[in-house]
Write a structure and sequence with these properties.
It holds the Pfam family adh_short_C2. It comes from Eremomyces bilateralis CBS 781.70. Keywords: NADP, Oxidoreductase. The chain has helices at residues 4-19, 53-64, 76-89, 104-118, 143-169, 193-213, 239-249, 258-269, and strands at 44-48, 68-73, 94-98, 123-126, 175-180, 219-226, 280-283. The chain is of the alpha/beta class. It has one domain: Rossmann fold (3-Layer(aba) Sandwich). The chain is globular, with a radius of gyration of 21 Å. The model has no long low-confidence stretch (mean pLDDT 95). The protein binds nicotinamide-adenine-dinucleotide.
Length: 292
């Protein structure tokens, strides 16, 4: 029978093993000084809401980096336009699926199809979202409909996608889930209850999945919170209002181009971003750190 002191010594040795970096036994590839890859070539991704704005730019940045991209959106015309735009530069890189993210059985079917057609999956970008307003006062009785629709698209859909993709993602050596929330998680305005609530909830579900999946080592889950971005979602705000808002609220004094968010999303997807997990990252020109 081993002495108690032997047992503690063995436990301590086991702990030292855990404390060694998971890169300890990995060698830098020939011709390079460092071990982790900054290449996404050959990886496979799903981007939701990829027909416009940040989703479209994310699909394009991924394709530029050699990723096979599944372009998912509600609108068939938009899906085709983005697929054609990508494939004109990177032939056969993009494939399109018409998919309403609020339709749970369609989401499961599309995830299955993408994984079959691509032969696996490494990256899921949960980007589709809507902002339809609604607060304490309801003049046309539509608040509850708008609330339900926002929860379905901005929140529930993300969980359905993650659950449908996790079995395939666990087979990747560097799987990445990026959820797009909003600076509405940190700061908010009047009449935007469902949007603000769902975007805050996205950071919560991200953290829960990050903790649950962390033990598999190969998969990370993170949230990006874009600030004021020039897309269809903000098209109804006049240029004058955009300018005065940016001057008042954003230290960089401007709205962002959607590619500026897409580039950050893709940075998180690099195999080299291997220890970033469960975070909430604002991409907002400094908006949320400004005191007044
Ligand atoms: N634009 C901003 O200032 C801003 C700021 C913070 C966060 N966001 C978030 O960024 C994400 C992308 O927004 P964007 O600004 O690029 O908007 P966008 O309107 O340009 O693009 C959103 C895309 O999502 C698609 N979509 C909407 N409902 C869908 C559904 N049910 N199923 C499938 N696709 C659907 C639309 O067809 C559209 O192509 C959203 O989650 C949004 O909430 C935007």
């Amino acid at each position: 029978m081993s002495k108690p002191s032997d047992k503690y010594a063995q436990k301590a040795l086991n702990r030292i093993d855990i404390l060694r970096s998971h890169l300890s036994d990995v060698k830098a590839p020939a011709g390079r000084l460092t071990k982790l890859s900054r290449s996404l070539r050959g990886r496979k991704a799903i981007v939701t809401g990829a027909g416009s704005g940040m989703g479209r730019e994310t699909a394009k940045v991924l394709a530029d980096e050699g990723v096979q991209v599944a372009v998912l959106d509600l609108d068939e015309g938009r899906v085709k336009a983005v697929v054609d735009e990508i494939n004109a530069v990177h032939p056969t890189c993009a494939k399109g699926w018409v998919c309403d993210v609020a339709d749970r059985s369609r989401v499961k079917q599309v995830c299955k199809e993408v994984i079959e057609v691509f032969g696996g999956l490494d990256i899921l970008v949960n980007n589709a979202g809507i902002s339809v307003g609604g607060g304490a006062f309801d003049e046309d009785g539509s608040f509850e409909t708008r609330w339900d629709k926002t929860v379905d698209i901005n929140l529930t859909a993300l969980v359905i996608f993650i659950r449908a993709c996790v079995p395939a993602l666990l087979k990747s050596d560097a799987a990445r889930i990026v959820n797009i929330a909003s600076t509405e998680h940190f700061v908010t305005g009047p009449g935007n209850a469902a949007y603000s609530a769902t975007k805050s909830a996205v950071t919560g579900l991200t953290r829960s999945f990050a903790v649950e999946l962390g033990k598999y080592q190969n998969i990370t889950v993170n949230t990006i919170c874009p600030g004021a971005i020039i897309t269809d979602m903000t098209a109804r705000i006049s240029p004058e209002l955009k300018e005065s808002y940016a001057k008042r609220r954003v230290p960089m004094r401007r709205y962002a181009d959607p590619e500026e968010v897409a580039q950050m999303t893709v940075n998180i997807c690099l195999p080299a971003s291997s220890y970033l997990n469960g975070t909430t990252i604002p991409v907002d020109g400094g908006m949320t750190i400004r005191h007044t």
